[in-house]
Structure formats: C-alpha cells, structure tokens
Design brief:
Blueprint lengths: L6 E3 L2 E9 L4 E7 L5 E6 L10 H13 L11 E5 L2 E7 L6 H8 L4 H20 L12 E3 L5 E3 L4 H9 L11 H4 L7 H16 L9 H10 L14 H10 L11 H13 L8 H7 L21 H18 L4 H14 L7 H31 L2 H14 L4 H29 L2 H14 L20 E8 L5 E6 L5 E6 L4 E5 L4 E6 L6 E6 L5 E6 L4 E5 L4 E6 L8 E4 L6 E6 L2 E6 L4 E7 L6 E6 L5 E6 L3 E6 L7 E6 L5 E6 L5 E6 L3 E6 L5 E6 L5 E6 L5 E6 L4 E5 L5 E5 L6 E6 L5 E6 L3 E7 L1
Antiparallel strand pairs: 1-2, 2-3, 3-4, 4-6, 5-6, 7-8, 9-36, 10-11, 11-12, 12-13, 14-15, 15-16, 16-17, 18-19, 19-20, 20-21, 22-23, 23-24, 24-25, 26-27, 27-28, 28-29, 30-31, 31-32, 32-33, 34-35, 35-36
Helix pairs in contact: 1-4, 3-6, 3-9, 6-8, 8-9, 11-12, 12-13, 13-14, 13-15, 14-15, 15-16
Length: about 750
C-alpha cells in the first residue's frame, strides 16, 4: 500500500512524497473530484514575502498554459492554499527520466539519442513561442512505456530562480550566465540538454558539488569530463557534441536544439540519419529571436544607480573582511549578499574567501551533520539524508560513512519511487507502465522487498500475477507435485507419506492416499490422465486409477530411492524410472520390467523427462551432463551427451516442442540448451544456492524455478532475463509448475504449503 500523508492542498489529497530538493517538494496526489492521480509541486511559502511573486507566478503559469504540444505537459491547476503556492501536472506512471537514470544507472546510447531528438523538437517549439524553460533537468522529463518523452513544469523554475535563487536540483544543469545573472537567451536550455545527455551516457553530472559556490565555479571554469575516461564507449563525435552544448559562451553553443539532435543522430547512425531530420531542421533552423523577444532573464536583486550600488557592495565587502575571524558565520552571510547582488563584481577574492569560510565552517559541522544523517537514516527520510550526506561530502569528499549513506539514500529513493509508481499503475490498470517499472526494478535490484507481491511479469504481454493464494496442503515437507495434461487435477506428495489429489484451480482436496511406507518423492500422471504414479524414498512405486484413485498395482524390483520417473508420450505402455546409475524401462499396465540401462560412466541419473512427441528420453546426470537416448531403439543408445553444468543437475524439463531442455544446478544457475546441437540458448543467474525445481511454460517462452533461497523465479527463455521474483515461502521450494492453460505458476515447499500465483 502507498503511504498516505493525510493532507490536502485544495481538492488534492497528498498520497506520498516523490522528491524534495530544498526548495520544491514534489508529491504524488489524488484529485478528490476525479479520483485521478496527479503530480503536485509545492513551492516555499516564503516566496509570498516577495510582493512581486504572485504577479510573476501568474505570468509564468499563463505562459506555460499557452504552449500547445502533445509532448509538453499542461499545467492542470495552480494557486496558493493556506500559504503554500502549488502547481499541478499530469501523473505518468512510468516516471521521469531522473528515475530511469537512477534505477538503470545509465541510458543506452540509442535510447539517449531518441530522447534528445524528442526533447529538441519541444524545446525549439517553445523557444519559437518566446519561452525559455530555465529548469530543464531529468526530473521534469516524463516518459511512457513506448519510449516517448514529455516536458513538464514550464514556468515553475523561472519563478523560483527569480525569487529565491537556484534550487539544488537545477544547479548541475544550469548555464553559467544564469549563475551570473546575466541576460539569458534560449541557449540556457540547450546547455541543460547537453548536461542531460552527458548524465544519460555516464550516470553522473558533468559538474559535481553541493553548495552554490563550487557548482558555480565548476560551470564557469571546469572542462567537461571525457566520456572515454569514465568508461563510456561512444563515438568520438558524441563528446564533441556535448562539449559544444556545454560551452561556457552562449554564442558558441548550438543555436537550436534540433541542430544538436541532428548531429547526435549522425554521429551514431551516420550522415544518412540527417535525412530524418530534414523536416525538423527546416522548421527550426531559423534565426532565433534577438533582444528580449519574449525571452526572460533572472530578476536583479537590488535597484538603484550602479555607482551607489557599487559603493554599498564595497562597504559590505569591507565589513565582512573585518569580522571574518570573530564571526565567520556572519561574514559568510555578508559575502553571499555581495555575490547575490552583483555576481560579475564579486569574482576572484570574494568567491575564494566565501568558499574558504564555508569549507572551514562545514568541517566544524561534520560531526553534527553525521549525527543528523544517522537519525534520518533510522527514520527512512531518504530525501533529507541524501541532501545531508551530500553536504558532508562537499566538505570532506573522503568521508566514508557519508558516502555509504548517500549511496543508500539514492538507491532507496530510486527503488521506492519505482515501487510506488508501479503500485499506482496497478491501481489504475496501466499494465504497460507497470511492466516497464517492474522490469527495471528487478533487473537492477532483484532482491527488492516486494511487500505487496506485485512485481511479477508475464513474458509475452507484460502483465503480472495479480493474485497469490497459499494452501496449507500437508503437515510435512512437500517433495513432489504433478498436473494432469488437462490441468484439472494436481497431485502432491510429502514426507508425511501421503499423496493428496486436488481439483484445480479451486485447490479443493478430493482424495488422500496414505499407504506409502516412506517419504513420497515423486508423482506423475500418465499422458492420458487415467493413472497416477507415486514413488517413495524406499523404492516403492504405486499406481492409482482415476477417477476414484483406487489402488491399481505396484511396480516392484527397486531397492532404493527413486530419483526420477517419467511416462513416455510416444508410447502409452512405456514408463522409465531412475535409481542410482540405472535406468529401468517398464511395460504398462502390468508393470513388467522391459530393460535396464546403465550409465556408461556409472554417474547417477538425477532427473529425466520424455520428449513430448517422440521416443527421446532426456536425462540429467550427476556430473552435470544432459544425455539424450533414443528409446525407439531396443538398446536405448545415447545420441547426445552435453556437458552443461560441470556439477550435479538437480532438476530438468523439456520444452513443449521438444527442441530444448532446461536444467538447474546446486550452484544456483539455470541453463537452456538446444537438444539438437547441444548449444546453450540462455543462462539464468539469480538464485542464492541450489535450484531444486524447474518447469517450462506451456508456450515455451519462459521457465519457472524454485530454490533453496525460498523464492520462485520466472525467466525469459530466449535471453535469460529475470521476469519476476516471487517471495512468500518460508522454507525451500522443491517443486514448481505452470498450469497447462498458462494461467498459474504453482509452487510447493518444505513448509507444507502450495502457492498459486495467478496470471492477470
């Protein structure tokens, strides 16, 4: 469930906090009239102390509302409630580009090109209408499951910058002239776009820092980091494009975002790629507006004659120098006033003195800040913990505890926002968005604690397992489980020496078979569904006849544990059992021993399955090999022998078309091979410890596995991608299956339970 804040802003119920950067707080909210979800930004209440704020606020929101583009998000509402200014925009369940970068760490080059191309069109359109965003950053770029992006929050950043200065979240993306409060043109947005491109490819900002001064100095003076030195493999031309977009001088940058996008596409896809930009370039490669032209500039803080202001600043600077040693905190405040009122005047020594004092004061505050960070960590306040840890690191970059807490905060914020957004997606039925979020979350953090057990995907349609049911099936460890081919019955066997028959999917108990003298370790229905076979630890194999499950007979002659059993699909009179390194072929229904085959290297057979449509018997061997025997030949010769795991195989299944096998091992790996060529198709890695159970889906596109780590996992066959981690068992999972109709994943455990995970 989502954490409810139990607070309203007008008609909007705040649901959960998404982000806080010291100036703007971003909430997920619900419209009480429509019950739809929105994103609500609250601005600092102190903005209202500025008499001109409301005029600028109204002007900015009207300007944002005048932009009509499918990829520029409208302002749904704005105003002031109980002294809190707010704006409202649509909610996108798929989240923002910021969330994507945080959870995936980097964006693939091709996806980054696509994002820049889309943003370029929207920025150029806005610039032609005379609007500058001033706050372009990954947090205001929304995305959907179709890899389309949208820009939001036009008008918000300028209001905040003009009134209280640059919010922390914008500083890594802000052009030098904004810091200096110079006249600003539309290339400030292109600078921000270049910073976003750098971050998408590298996973970090082009400038790093916490407080205003070091970030300003970095934007003013630092060269753009080299992508190749950060381990990013991209064409050399991409670095040149970023360098040009992030040039310190506005007239040296790209003059339109479309020019940048065209060069970027050409650097990745070749010059021919520019053809797809011909319409875009014709539309936007025009002389940008000059002068004011509707473009805005940050508001000067003070007014009056330049000579008078200069004199006042000199006196303020002199006073700060006088009290540096006796009252450093007050001196810092005075230096900041000088810089804020006249950034161009206050270069060199003023900046250096302010930075030095801030550093000294910061070092003194580190113990208190670390104590504060520990308290924030204990209470799970990840937003403030991130800000506090970053502040400590700005004073002491080598502070190990602060670095660890910063990483923990970033991971917790990224995963938490993904999970909360995925929860909303399930409530609104936005399954494509849910699929995107859940896949990214589990690909990067497979052990994320899924309290609501929501994040289960279906490989074909991106849907998920909506329902989990737990059935207390046995009072002992369940070791075996089997479906009829029709999927109407499920048999379970356990260490209580009982076999139980369940009507499926109701899981209504219909029969109990109690007469085994030892643990039941295998169950199997014949292909026609008329016989149930159960085998126990002491070698006893019993047959039971449907529908009454009366005792039909016993197959005798095995003196120890039956490791595996299998009915043949090509011949309804053939059945195979494995005990040690012996394979025994039996003739049904009389249970006559037909032949005994030995593994040539005397390696025990640990798992086996007949191919669905022919006479091949596929076996897993204790040494890690998969062997295929031709049972149409009386000798049952080995026709394929492939070393798959290099160690004991614990479970095996054959795909519905008979072309592939999937096997598991004690090391936690799962592998799919081509039974014709012996080549590996995919490898799944994620379980911690042995994997005891495996099964193909009815369409052969995914497999389910169960392991000693108490989890059931679902994987894509072709690429081995993790699709879901299902948690809830309290003891190891020994059996897993997908129902023949493909609607359920079913697992059983040594905790005596059977769990049903119902596909939506």
């Amino acid at each position: 469930m989502l954490d409810t804040l139990d607070q309203n802003i007008g008609k909007f119920q705040l649901v959960t906090k998404l982000r806080y950067d010291g100036e703007v707080t971003v909430y997920l909210a619900q419209d009480a009239e429509t019950m739809g979800y929105v994103v609500l930004n609250t601005l600092p209440g102190r903005l209202l102390e500025d008499n001109a704020f409301m005029e600028r606020f109204e002007e900015g929101m009207r300007a944002a509302s005048s932009l009509f583009s499918p990829h520029i998000m409208p302002v749904l509402d704005y105003g002031v409630v109980d002294g809190v200014p707010f704006t409202v925009r649509p909610f996108f369940a798929s989240g923002t580009l910021e969330h994507q970068i945080r959870i995936n760490h980097r964006v693939p080059l091709e996806d980054a090109v696509n994002i820049v191309v889309q943003l370029a069109d929207e920025l150029d359109y806005a610039h032609e209408q005379g609007h500058i965003h001033f706050g372009v950053n990954p947090g205001v770029i929304l995305r959907d499951d179709a890899n389309q992006v949208y820009m939001s929050d036009f008008g918000v950043a300028k209001v905040v910058i003009d009134t209280v200065g640059l919010p922390l979240s914008l500083r890594p993306y802000t052009a030098p002239e904004v810091f200096l409060r110079l006249t600003c043109g539309h290339t400030v947005d292109i600078y921000s776009l270049g910073a976003i491109l750098f971050e998408m490819l590298s996973g970090q900002h082009p400038v790093e820092g916490f407080s205003h001064v070091p970030l300003k100095q970095a934007h003013d003076n630092n060269a753009v980091p080299r992508l190749d030195q950060l381990g990013v493999d991209v064409p050399d031309a991409v670095q040149g494009i970023i360098d040009r977009a992030l040039d310190k001088l506005p007239n040296m940058r790209y003059q339109s975002a479309s020019q940048m996008a065209a060069d970027l596409a050409a650097s990745v896809y070749g010059e021919a790629a520019k053809e797809m930009f011909s319409t875009l370039l014709d539309k936007h490669l025009v002389q940008p507006p000059t002068g004011d032209g509707g473009f805005s500039r940050p508001r000067p803080v003070s007014t009056g004659s330049s000579s008078g202001k200069h004199s006042d600043l000199v006196r303020l600077y002199a006073d700060a120098l006088m009290i540096e040693r006796t009252d450093p905190q007050r001196a810092v405040s005075m230096y900041r006033q000088v810089i804020d009122q006249e950034p161009q005047f206050s270069q060199g020594e003023v900046i250096e003195r302010l930075h030095s004092l801030e550093q000294d004061l910061g070092l003194e505050r580190i113990p208190d800040k670390i104590d504060e960070a520990r308290r924030l960590r204990e209470h799970g306040d990840w937003d403030l913990l991130e800000l506090t840890a970053r502040e400590v690191l700005s004073y002491d970059p080598d502070h190990r505890e602060a670095a660890d807490m910063l990483e923990e905060a970033r991971v917790s914020l990224a995963t938490g926002i993904h999970y909360r957004s995925a929860t909303v997606a399930t409530q609104t039925g936005d399954w494509p968005a849910f699929s995107l979020l859940a896949r990214e979350l589990y690909d990067n953090y497979p052990d994320y604690p899924d309290e609501n057990e929501l994040l289960v995907l279906h490989v074909d349609n991106g849907e998920f397992l909506r329902e989990q049911r737990t059935i207390p099936a046995h009072d002992a460890k369940i070791l075996a489980m089997a479906f009829t081919n029709e999927g109407d019955m499920l048999a379970t066997g356990a260490t209580d020496r009982m076999v139980k028959i369940w009507r499926f999917p109701e899981m209504e108990l219909t029969n109990e078979i109690p007469n085994h003298s030892s643990w039941v370790c295998n169950t199997a229905f014949s292909p026609d569904g008329l016989l149930l076979l159960s085998a126990s630890w002491d070698g006893q194999i019993s047959l039971w006849e449907r529908p009454t499950f009366e005792y039909y007979g016993m197959i005798a002659g095995l003196a120890n544990q039956v490791r595996a059993i299998a009915f043949a699909n090509h011949d309804d009179t053939m059945m195979a059992t494995a005990a040690g390194y012996f394979l025994t072929i039996w003739t049904l229904p009389v249970g006559k021993r037909d032949k005994v085959l030995r593994e040539p290297d005397r390696q025990p057979v640990t798992a086996m399955k007949f191919a669905p449509h022919d006479a091949r018997l596929v076996t897993g061997i204790n040494n890690g090999n998969v062997r295929v025997r031709d049972m149409s030949d009386p000798e049952g010769p080995i026709i394929k022998d492939v070393d798959v795991h290099g160690g004991p195989i614990y479970a095996l299944d054959v795909s519905p078309d008979g072309t592939r096998s999937v096997t598991t091992s004690r090391k936690g790996t799962v592998k799919v091979i081509d039974l014709e060529t012996g080549e590996r198709i995919s490898r799944m890695q994620g379980h911690k410890g042995p994997v005891r159970a495996v099964a193909f889906s009815p369409d052969g596109t995914m497999v389910a596995t169960g392991g000693r780590d108490l989890t059931v996992r679902v994987w894509g066959v072709e690429d081995g991608r993790s699709l879901a981690v299902l948690k809830g068992h309290t003891e190891p999972v020994d059996s897993v299956a997908l129902s023949p109709d493909g609607r359920y994943v079913v697992s059983s455990s040594t905790d005596g339970t059977v769990k049903l995970w119902a596909l939506a």
